[in-house]
């Protein structure tokens, strides 16, 4: 890999992306946006290889598919890859991607909560309806996840689907990802339009922490490779954990920083600020 090639990738990861007119308003109203041509095919190919190698190196889920829970069948999940590889750290710390998050949240800057690779195997099942912020002991809804498919993602691969405007209502906020959340929220979310569609190569989505979303099973015969980063307002505060998952998150991703204080542990660097 030549230095000039690596430099060009790093330049792309730092270059500002011009948000189309009305995108910030769409995010605020509907709770998500899908943006085309955010990352080049060359960049995605390069980092897909690095991220995939780490996923298979670090993955601890080896049970046969038929022995797994619904959650375990949904994807292989490996977190904080940025601590395992300096090159992947360049990707996770992308100012291009973090600036989009900052603009969508309409804040002065964002910190990293954590990254996670989500690889839905070729026989992987559905990802049930859920809202991510159920898992996070954070004071404000100013959170957003970027979902980056590392390949073109047709419907048969199980792309992300969004229940539009569901972040505005406090329903289902006590539900973990499970068969129960899928059944209950399928009924509850009938009042909302669902946006589901394929992702082109280079297209990414951003969704709010309290927006309900799901993904279908992967029937493509190929793994659905996705990288995600969770961003939070740089001024986010830690609240007392409300469930066992938030307790674990407080200890793991926030390093048990004082409750009531800022979410600014060594694992939560500012990735973009004005």
Structural features, described:
This protein starts with a helix and ends with a strand. Strands 1, 2, 3, 5, 8, 10 and 11 form a seven-stranded antiparallel beta sheet that branches. The protein has a four-stranded antiparallel beta sheet with strand order 4-9-6-7. The chain has one domain: Jelly Rolls (Sandwich), CATH 2.60.120.620. It is of the alpha+beta class. The longest helix has 18 residues, at 41-58. The radius of gyration is 18 Å and the shape is globular. It has eight helices and eleven strands. 29% of the residues lie in helices and 22% in strands. It comes from Dyadobacter luticola. One of its GO terms (molecular function) is 2-oxoglutarate-dependent dioxygenase activity. This is Phytanoyl-CoA dioxygenase family protein. Keywords: Dioxygenase, Oxidoreductase. Pfam families: PhyH.
